[in-house]
């Protein structure tokens, strides 16, 4: 296992060394406000995939040369109305074509005051995104979104108080497309943020590891949409992490990387684990350690399942950072990745043809729809938050 560690100004970032309120290098009482704790403590939002988006020519060009007609590789889409990073994203395939969602996140101020719960939707053929009713509850970061039975679900994340204290969320909310409103569903047993989240068999939401208020956990939480209930599944045996990436193809679940805490501070982990999911006994998961994958290790990469059944882990960074995009260790900007790691038929591969036109990080996922995967908003080098949308046809 490859480990790259960052230090925390002499004290380390081990929560036990600095107290339970200290997370991501946050001092007790200081919260996640970079100005309150200095540049080395800055906490970075996972910089979502971004790029310039083409809004159109005189004839109303859109990502709609038709998704089915798009060439392989990356193509620009219709930009969001505002820049956003660390936003939860989902894609839904409808009779009328693809529908994309961007929920919550942080704006270009990259401050706690820029955290919001705004949401946007785009439908194939539209020249612009429309704003949705805001996600109920306080604004929060590190939420996750999935498409389940034709509707978006948003879960977890954390809020930051005016005093800077953070609280992980246990909420699960569904957006009713027919009524145009949010509906509260059964809350998670363990409040979580920065988790690995994916849908399995269009029935279950699988939540693996992540951060819960004061520490990362090994919990695997399983939601059944048919009963609106949660169950505990076999725990994650890898390093307890946050900001990892995860995807499901068929009954195979893959988890990679993330950031762990320890005596030396925050460390990015090159790890990959395979879970064999079983429909007859969904809470009994058989885990297999696949070892390290081709470098780089990735923090807050975007993961999605392609129409070819392969899993794609795109972007992110190997440098743990604060929500302003600055590295914990020295306060300098984290370096985003443009590369994409593909997993298929039991092996990982870095394919240069999948490199994006622009390196990005701070992702919550790649939204899958039709034969394409979408990166929606995020951060680029600078750091800078962008409204851009890109789609990938593997």
Topology (SSEs and partners):
Layout: E1 2-5, H1 15-18, H2 34-37, E2 73-76, E3 88-94, E4 97-106, E5 115-123, E6 130-132, E7 144-148, E8 151-155, E9 158-160, E10 166-168, E11 172-176, E12 181-184, E13 196-200, E14 204-208, E15 211-212, E16 215-216, E17 220-224, E18 229-233, E19 245-249, E20 252-256, E21 259-262, E22 265-270, E23 272-276, E24 286-289, E25 302-305, E26 311-314, E27 340-344, E28 347-350, E29 367-369, E30 372-380, E31 384-393
Antiparallel strand pairs: 1-22, 2-31, 3-4, 4-5, 5-6, 7-8, 8-11, 9-10, 11-12, 13-14, 14-17, 15-16, 17-18, 19-20, 20-23, 21-22, 23-24, 25-26, 26-27, 27-28, 29-30, 30-31
Could you explain the architecture of this structure?
This protein has one domain: Kelch-type beta propeller (Neuraminidase), CATH 2.120.10.80. It contains two helices and 31 strands. It has a four-stranded antiparallel β-sheet with strand order 2-31-30-29, with no helix packed on it. Strand 3 and strand 4 form a beta hairpin. The chain is globular, with a radius of gyration of 19 Å. The relative contact order is 0.20.
Overview features:
394 residues; mainly beta; 4-stranded antiparallel beta sheet; globular
Global geometry: globular
Rg result: 19 Å
The averaged pLDDT comes out at 85
For the termini, the CA-CA separation is 28 Å
Please name the CATH topology.
Neuraminidase
Secondary-structure content class: mainly beta
What number of domains?
Answer: 1
Largest β sheet strand count, sense and barrel closure: 4 strands, antiparallel
Low-confidence stretches: 1-68
In CATH's first tier, which class applies? Mainly Beta
Number of strands: 31
Q: Helicity, in percent?
A: under 10%
CATH superfamily: Kelch-type beta propeller
- Percentage of β-strand residues: 35-45%
Number of helices: 2
Oligomeric state: single chain
Architecture (CATH level 2) name? 6 Propeller
Q: Widest sheet: strand order?
A: 2-31-30-29
């Amino acid at each position: 296992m490859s480990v790259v560690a960052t230090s925390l100004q002499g004290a380390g970032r081990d929560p036990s060394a600095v107290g339970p309120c200290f997370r991501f290098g946050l001092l007790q009482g200081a919260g996640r406000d970079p100005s309150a704790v200095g540049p080395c403590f800055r906490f970075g939002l996972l910089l979502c995939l971004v790029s310039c988006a083409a809004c159109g020519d005189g004839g109303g060009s859109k990502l709609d040369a038709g998704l089915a007609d798009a060439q392989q590789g990356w193509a620009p889409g219709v930009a969001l109305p505002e820049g956003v990073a660390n936003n939860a994203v989902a894609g839904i395939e409808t009779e009328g074509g693809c529908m994309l969602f961007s929920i919550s996140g942080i704006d270009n101020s990259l401050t706690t005051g820029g955290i919001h719960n705004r949401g946007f939707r785009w439908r194939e053929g539209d020249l612009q995104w429309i704003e949705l009713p805001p996600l109920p509850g306080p604004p929060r970061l590190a939420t996750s979104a999935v498409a389940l039975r034709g509707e978006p679900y948003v879960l977890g994340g954390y809020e930051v108080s005016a005093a800077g204290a953070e609280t992980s969320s246990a909420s699960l909310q569904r957006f009713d497309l027919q009524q145009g409103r949010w509906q509260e569903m059964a809350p998670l047993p363990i409040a979580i943020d920065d988790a690995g989240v994916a849908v399995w068999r269009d029935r279950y939401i699988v939540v693996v590891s992540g951060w819960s208020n004061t520490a990362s956990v090994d919990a695997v939480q399983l939601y059944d949409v048919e009963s609106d209930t949660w169950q505990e599944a076999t725990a994650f045996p890898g390093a307890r992490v946050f900001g990892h990436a995860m995807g499901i193809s068929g009954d195979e679940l893959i988890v990679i990387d993330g950031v762990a805490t320890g005596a030396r501070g925050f460390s990015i982990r090159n790890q990959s684990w395979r879970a064999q999911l079983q429909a007859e006994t969904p809470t009994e998961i058989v885990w297999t350690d696949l070892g390290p994958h081709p470098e780089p290790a990735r923090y807050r990469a975007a993961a999605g399942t392609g129409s070819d059944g392969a899993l794609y882990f795109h972007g992110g960074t190997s440098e743990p950072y604060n929500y302003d995009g600055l590295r914990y260790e020295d306060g300098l900007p984290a370096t985003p990745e443009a590369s994409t790691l593909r997993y298929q038929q039991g092996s990982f591969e870095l394919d240069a043809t999948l490199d994006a036109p622009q390196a990005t990080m701070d992702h919550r996922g790649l939204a899958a729809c039709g034969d394409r995967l979408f990166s929606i908003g995020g951060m680029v080098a600078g750091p800078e938050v962008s409204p851009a949308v890109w789609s990938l046809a593997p």
